[in-house]
Specification:
CATH class: Mainly Alpha
Shape: globular
Family: Belongs to the alanine or glycine:cation symporter (AGCS) (TC 2.A.25) family.
InterPro entries: Na/Ala_symport (IPR001463)
Radius of gyration: 25 Å
Membrane topology: Multi-pass membrane protein
Strand content: under 5%
Protein name: Alanine or glycine:cation symporter, AGCS family
Low-confidence stretches: 1-21, 126-144
Keywords: Cell membrane, Membrane, Symport, Transmembrane, Transmembrane helix, Transport
Structural class: mainly alpha
Number of helices: 26
Length: 562
Amino acid sequence: MKYKLLNLFTFLFPVLIFSQEQGLDQQIDQAFKPISDFFSAVIFFNVWHDPDIPFVLVLLVGSALFFTLYFGFPNIKYFGKAINTVRGKYEDIEKHGAKELYGEDGIAQGQDLTNIDIEDHLVNIENDLAIDGDIIDTIRDESSDGEVSHFQALATAVSGTVGNGNIAGVALAIALGGPGATFWMIICGLLGMSTKFVECTLGVQYRDVGADGTVYGGPMFYISKGLKERGFKTVGKVAAVIFAIFCIGGSFGGGNAAQSNQATIVIKELFNWQSTAAGAIVGLVLAILVGVIIIGGIKRIAQVTEKVVPFMAVMYVIACLYIIFSNYTLVDDAISLIVTEAFEPTAVGVGSLIGVLLVGFKRAAFSNEAGAGSASIAHSAVRTKYSASEGLVALLEPFIDTVVICSMTAIVIIIFNFGGAFTYGGDGTGAVLIDGIPYEGAGITAVAFAEYIPYSNVFLTIAVVLFAVSTMISWSYYGLQSWKFLFGRGKTADMVYKLLFCTFIVIGAAASMKSIWDFSDAMIFAMVFPNMVGLYFLFPVVKKQLNRYLDAIKLKYDAIED
């Protein structure tokens, strides 16, 4: 043992000396940058030059437009039903089935069972009516499908999308592309609602339920099982494995390192921490915190996010609304600038309309992850008998994430910059000079908030950290499900993944913003390729399941009205 410790010390001593000379954070960044550059170059290959147009963005936006048209604008048509589903208006038929409750031989007897205890109702009808006992037993058994409620699944998924993409990502978009990038973020968010609907419906439709009731779902399942149904077993298996690998990478990148990176930036600025190892230390603390939480699994994550997500979203939205209403005379000017600059951009280095469009689409896709398939992993755990019900719930995500929260952040930053605080376009990497000091990402948003809210640096630090932690714990679940798909469902394999996940928290906190976000973008967008294979093969299944769910709702209300 002594010799082993001596050898370990001998190995670590020069590393420690080198890290002191160079700075631990800088050393981690230099080691990570080549990895980031490699994946970014591979994933974002261009199909057009001058301006550069990556194929993955064409695929993502084109597919979102196709699904929007094919399903008849579900982002608008079914928005009300999506809200009612989250509210539990159709919970009875989702748990027990429409025909079993409201069909000709159903147990409802013309009564709306939404807010009635089904067990009590079953006892009453067993005593009063001669109904087949097998039907009653079936209704009782099928009420236990899934692990979490619609609201919990939405909260978990939203916590994976509503994160520092809304604070740092929006600031990065405006710093690079100017106010016009906001317009294209909103368009991408609206179109992304349709894609999210498709992939989350499939997530529930093709999920696996373990013997202990644990749910396993997501693109790796609907790709492999769905394509097998259509006679493409090998293609499905290969695409599912590729997705699982990229999803693990996404959980280490956009769902982890990018989050800890922005949390570290605001923490260091709040405490004016200049140590060369500050990032690594903050990352270690965050890693311990997240590590404790993720041991609990999806039910623990759902319980945490169910409370944290509404709190952090409301807190952040209130702050944005305060600034917006305090400067209400400038809101119309900000909106006008967003629309004008979307088609006639003036940001330094952004170039033409295509340039600002790409900046907006890229940041929106990173923020709401529609098309990446990640959210379908969380949504697949919902308690329901109708897969399309959760698809409708899921389309609310991009609306909340991009159309509402991202837009608010953008308007705050644009109002702040009416005074000419910085030049749109900056240095071309996402950094801008404010009072001669370079700021990037969440730092830009923090300066904008500080202009209007006293001690907002404390407030925004808390908000960024909460966004970061909630996103990390949700993405740890996404990555773990992919890890299980590849390596099995053993405890040892799970622990290996969780240790790797926590390691990337430290890497993200220590490395530079550009390296981390380039890697994160690459990993998130890489998931799009295998996921779209599944969506294009299986979207007719979604159409069938949507009609089935709408027919079930109609059957319920026809029975009640009669």
